[in-house]
Amino acid sequence: MSDFDTNLPSIRQVQNFIKDKHEIELKLVTGDLLAGKIFWQDKDCISILDHYDKQTIVWRHSIVYLKPKS
């Protein structure tokens, strides 16, 4: 059995960001701010594509917040 529960609201919201290709901002516990589009997610990580289509994989436990970019 997987720990990746697609019934959780947070997982569904991230899936909507992926599907709709929303630009997001992701703040890390280090204070770094990443911006781009979410490419994929799994139970441990989220992959962000920046404006140069460079992929960054972020561990979920290092995320302070994730929000749509205004």
From TrEMBL:
Residues 8-68 form the Hfq-related domain. Pfam families: Hfq_1. NCBIfam families: Hfq_rel_Cyano. This is Hfq-related domain-containing protein. It comes from Oscillatoria acuminata PCC 6304.
